[in-house]
Structure formats: structure tokens, C-alpha cells
Write a structure and sequence with these properties.
The protein has 13 helices and no strands. The chain is mainly α. The longest helix has about 40 residues.
Length: about 300
Amino acid sequence: MWRFVARRLLHALPVLLGTTFLIYTLVFVLPGDPIQGLAGDKPVPPAVLAELHARYHLDDPLWMQYTHYLAGLLTGDLGTTFTGREVSDLLADRWAITLQLGLTAWVLELVFGMALGVWAGLRKGKWDDSAVLFGTTLIISVPVFVVGYLAQLVFGVQLGWLPVAGTEGGWPLAFLLPGLVLASFGLAYVARLTRSSLIENLRADYVRTAHAKGLSRRRVVVKHTLRNSLIPVVTFLGLELGGLMAGAIVTEYIFNLPGVGQQLFQSIQLREGPVVVGTTTALVLIFLLANLLVDLLYGLLDPRIRHD
């Protein structure tokens, strides 16, 4: 097991280096001076400009700038903003909001997505199966920002059931509506994936054998079929955990939630390169760890899978 974990961590290293270098290049290769861009129309004294350029290595070649960033990253330093604040401190103030939003969305995907998928799979060909297929297709085809504004209008303004924006009311009340919007695409996909996986396993020989032995339908589904059907769903949900953190950018902007996504959006607008690179590096690390966790869960769901 530990050899498997070590191998996966070694495989993740080039992925981390490649993605961080790509992000760093995209952020700092843009034309224009980021220090002057942050100041807007106000003139920056040449001495201050030169001092900041030297501090952030902005006059060095790109590969050398990235090397400085990488050296700091190895010691746990995500960099410093152009205003002198540690990026890790900036993110620490906002992670709580993004984690609450991401976990709310993930739980909604897990519970409602799998429940709808199992329901539709067991009712294959009937009207409720068709309703689930139609509803999930509709949700997948509509962009997240459209779903967000519609949800605010219907559930927030017209019905008044949930807060329209902000964190007033705390968790979970203030996070239900943005969590549902963030989870909408993944929830629909989990439902369809669970349904098709369950239907495929219900046709397997071992299920027919279980029925022939006289086991009840409920026992066959819960104890035998559902467990095997969960493997592709767990794969998606594990990867989705990292994807939800990145997807929070749009949702936090729509619902005015002061999380990491909103910070990243504002930093892109202000060309705060260190914050953009530091935030995306943290998101990449979360994604890689979620991927490793999914691989480890395979062995629990299917003992035939070994990690040696």
C-alpha cells in the first residue's frame, strides 16, 4: 500500500510542476507592468517601481522567476502579494467559505445524485426514469451562471425560501442555494452515471445467480449490485471534490460569497499574479490529493483491486 502511495506521489510531481509552470507563464507573460497595472492611473515613483521589480524578480527571465517561485513553494511559501501580504494568509481567511460551499455542493451531489440514479435505474423504462433523464439532460445543457441567476430569482426573490446572496444566516442556510447551483452539473452527471452503471450490473450473471438462490430483490441490489455500481461514481465524486473548489469561482461571484473563488476572480481582474498563481497551485494540490484518495477507495469497494 505504502509503495503504491509513494508511486502515485512521484507521478503527481511532474503534473504539479507542469501545471504550475503553465499557470505561471500564462500569468506573467502578459504584456504590461503588473505593478503599474495595480496602481491604475496613479503614477508610481520610479524608485518604488524598481524596488518592487527587484523584490518580485520581475526583470528576470521567466524561467528564473519560476525557479524562485518553486524554491519558495518547496518550503511551503505560496508567495507574497504586490501589497506585501502573504498569499497563504490571504487564502487562510477565505478557505472556510469555499470549503463550506464545496462540501455542501459535494454532499448534495452524493445524496441526491445517487438517490436519483438508483431510483431511475430500478425504474428503467417507466415515466419516472424518463423524467430523471429529461431533467438531468436539461440541467447539464444549461450554463451554471444561468442556473444561478434563475435560482436566485425563483427561490430567493419570488418564493423567499433562501438568502439570495452573502453569508448572513451562516451554514447551512446561506450555502444551500449556491451549493445547489454549484452541484447542479455534477448532481445530474452522478444521477446518470449511477443509473447506467446500476442497469449494467443488474444484467450481470452474478445477479441472476443471486436471484436464482432465492435472495430478495432488495438484498441483491443493496448488497451486491449497488456496491459494484459505485466504482465509477466514486471516481467521479473524488475528482469532483477538487473540481468544485475551482468551480466555486463563478458561484461565489454570483452569490457574493467572500471565498477563495471570489478572491481569485478579483486577483485576475487586478493582475495580482502571485495570488493567482498561489491560489491555483493550492487548487491543483487539492485535486491531486483527491485523485489519490479515489484510488485508495477502490480497494475498499472492490477487494479484488490491489494496490501492490
